[in-house]
Amino acid sequence: MARTRYAPDRGLTRRMGLTMFLIGLLYVVFVGVLIAAFGNAWPFIVLVAGGFLFAQFWFSDRIAAYSMGAREVTPEQAPELHGAVDRLCALADMPKPKVAIADTDVPNAFATGRSQKKAMVCATTGLLRRLERDELEGVLAHELSHVAHRDVAVMTVAAFLGVLAGLITRIALWTGLSRGGRNNNALLLLIPLVSAVVYVISFLLTRVLSRYRELSADRTGALLTGRPSALASALTKVSGQMGRIPTRDLRQAEPFNAFYFAPALSGDGLSRLFSSHPTLEQRLDRLGRLSRELGQP
């Protein structure tokens, strides 16, 4: 992590390193299986895998921001938002990221970027309308924590590898099966099965990391501002307002839950195992304990 005044989280650093190692190993094994299955097409498979991985690393932040409707704004266009980011960056002693607004009533915020210099912090118009100043700063401190710890870059790359596995599988099957051969029927069964296993494992690994990183950002963001209660208030308000947003809008935002401050749709029961965020109760409990540690009500 780059040196800032955000409290370091060695547990998060270890988890990020382990997640990337396991997903990278899984990805290498997957590409190796494809090369073994389609021996003649191995240069094409390696080229596609390397090319897409390079593109994801360099352009993932722009792709994510565009997909979520982020529009960069100037201090004149959004003075309150820029003022809050300025104060927090000065407090954290970190470079100021780009500041953006997404025009949607879903109250949320997110951060993107592979480094602090390339980072962007975005708040939705729905969030800006609903939060008080100290609550907004609590949410922004949470998002800037993701930038300082660089876990947003790890999540972006890790989440993409599962999607890339499926894409490479389709390309490999198309190029290999179009040539014909006696093993085509076996490949039709084996390759999609291996791809599905790769996707499921990468999905579960990123979900476990995602839940931990949200708790880490809650803690380090609240420590930076010194007001855990403001972040808890924002969490309660945002989660409560989600039920008033049209389901269609929430479902449009749901694919990006792993990047959001709060999930657009939260499940119950078994679906919580696959959630990108810890439960609201868990987050409020952690913030409550942190308030008591700091001697606050």
From TrEMBL:
Cofactor requirement: Zn(2+)
Cofactor binding remark: Binds 1 zinc ion per subunit.
Subcellular localization, as worded in the UniProt entry: Cell membrane
GO BP annotations listed: proteolysis
Listed transmembrane segments: 12-35, 41-59, 152-174, 186-209
Classification via Pfam families: Peptidase_M48
Active site (record annotation): E143
E.C. code: 3.4.24.-
InterPro entries: HtpX_protease, Pept_M48_protease_HtpX, Peptidase_M48
Keywords: Cell membrane, Hydrolase, Membrane, Metal-binding, Metalloprotease, Protease, Stress response, Transmembrane, Transmembrane helix, Zinc
Superkingdom per UniProt: Bacteria
Family matches, as PANTHER family: PROTEASE HTPX (PTHR43221), PROTEASE HTPX HOMOLOG (PTHR43221:SF2)
Protein's UniProt name: Protease HtpX homolog
Organism annotation: Streptomyces zhaozhouensis
